[in-house]
Amino acid sequence: xxxxxxxxxxxxxxxxxxxxxxxxxxxxxxxxxxxxxxxxxxxxxxxxxxxxxxxxxxxxxxxxxxxxxxxxxxxxxxxxxxxxxxxxxxxxxxxxxxxxxxxxxxxxxxxxxxxxxxxxxxxxxxxxxxxxxxxxxxxxxxxxxxxxxxxxxxxxxxxxxxxxxxxxxxxxxxxxxxxxxxxxxxxxxxxxxxxxxxxxxxxxxxxxxxxxxxxxxxxxxxxxxxxxxxxxxxxxxxxxxxxxxxxxxxxxxxxxxxxxxxxxxxxxxxxxxxxxxxxxxxxxxxxxxxxxxxxxxxxxxxxxxxxxxxxxxxxxxxxxxxxxxxxxxxxxxxxxxxxxxxxxxxxxxxxxxxxxxxxxxxxxx
Length: 365
Known about the structure:
The chain has helices at 8-11, 40-46, 94-97, 105-113, 159-162, 168-179, 195-206, 219-227, 241-248, 263-271, 295-300, 315-327, 346-354, and strands spanning 20-21, 28-37, 56-57, 61-69, 81-84, 123-125, 128-132, 142-146, 150-152, 187-191, 211-216, 232-235, 253-258, 273-281, 304-307, 337-341, 360-364. The chain is of the alpha/beta class. The protein has two domains: 8-166 and 332-364, Quinone Oxidoreductase, Chain A, domain 1, CATH 3.90.180.10; 169-309, Rossmann fold.
């Protein structure tokens, strides 16, 4: 149910029920889901800010084990551990051919339609057909996904950590190292300290940014950001927050990353970016949200405003790479895990997420 009133623990927009899952078709895989993260992209469907075809099985950030292979899948084996990427990449369209699989055109079309990459729906409840969420639908014990949604990963990685690489880590770290190729010594700010924002902060530390400013409304998250490598923190509610950042950095940061999915946050990020600097947004605001910026300043100050989707990543390349960084101690993403929960507790967990009281909660199966 979309647009249900808060608290979700009472209105229960997500119904835990048995559904029918068809076997995998051509180029599809049956996955036993072992861990699935709760993300604002799921919440935005629940609260109605992100229209999706309903009814739908939500969840798009997960890790699991391959249980069965559809015809045509020859490069995975039963028992392989996999992480799902929420944009399946066809590898043939123009963006894919130019090394930008996060912008896959058939992948975007199938995600919008609520189907798998090949156009099929494998979920039913009685006679009612159910839609897939971003080709994944991870809030379930099993899911059928396109082979092009899956990345094989090291089986030694705990599932609750592996799941984070499907969205939060790849989106946040990727924005820093792929979208703008942040150089060592850079001055950066991250606005919005959810799972994606804190992952971006970790990515900035891994990229050896010299000044790493964390911005949020939550003092608890600002405290965690300090523990994760922020050199400075700033509460966005402070009337002098913009001036504080600009004075601290002698005119603004080289790169500001907006991760809150809020137009006000993006305006803030733009204002703290220096002349010649770059403002990156990976936050998904409601579709009707509009941004107003001074045209003259964009030109005369040679500003850059960039979007970043799935961290401008190639999941086949970047998910294993970021996992290696984690295993080598360079990217402590396990610190993003707020709590583990059962599927029956998922509505109350979305209250926690909506209140800003969690970074990443993970359902374990």
